[in-house]
Specification:
The protein is mostly helical and about 160 residues long. It has one domain. Helix 4 packs antiparallel against helix 5 and helix 7 packs antiparallel against helix 8. The longest helix is centred in the first third of the chain and has 21 residues.
């Protein structure tokens, strides 16, 4: 019986180590994306701004965002956090609301520069096909002068 418990414990430890290795939270970009959680914006706005700065620096290093746009993006992000209704941010429900729709409805018109970065961040994960379909159905960025990350793909 003791041998079985020891074996089971070692298997459980090995599985947990593998899960930790594979988890996206291990990567700095994934950790910095916590700035997009409306609940974090409401409870810790300064931390959200810091995380957005980290995300932007990674995007600049990867040539995804021009360095000249970072000040405008940070200003718009700070303004969004400051002007968004705190109760609206706090009441965001992971179970009932979609983050892309929630942020798009509140950012896309008034904060277009930061919205382009947020849209790109939401599309980074490989498991976000529903997000892409949502953007496509709403025709975000589709048109004559499409400049967004997902400008009207042919395959849809």
């Amino acid at each position: 019986m003791l041998g079985f418990r020891t074996d089971a414990k070692s298997v459980l430890i090995a599985v947990c180590k593998k899960l930790v290795q594979k988890t996206p939270i291990k990567y700095p970009v994934a950790r910095s994306l916590s700035c997009l959680d409306p609940r974090n914006m409401a409870s810790a706005p300064e931390h959200s701004r810091t995380m957005m700065k980290r995300f932007l620096s990674t995007c600049v290093e990867a040539n995804l965002v021009p360095e000249t746009d970072c000040d405008v993006i940070m200003q718009q992000f700070a303004d969004f956090i400051h002007t968004a209704a705190k109760s609206e941010l706090e009441n965001f429900s992971v179970e009932n609301d979609r983050l892309d729709t929630f942020l798009q409805n509140r950012m896309a018109i008034r904060y277009p520069t930061v919205w382009l970065v947020v849209e790109m961040a939401l599309l980074l994960s490989h498991g976000q096909a529903t997000v892409e379909r949502g953007f496509h159905k709403q025709r975000v960025g589709c048109g004559e002068s499409a400049r967004t990350v997902i400008s009207c793909k042919e395959g849809y």
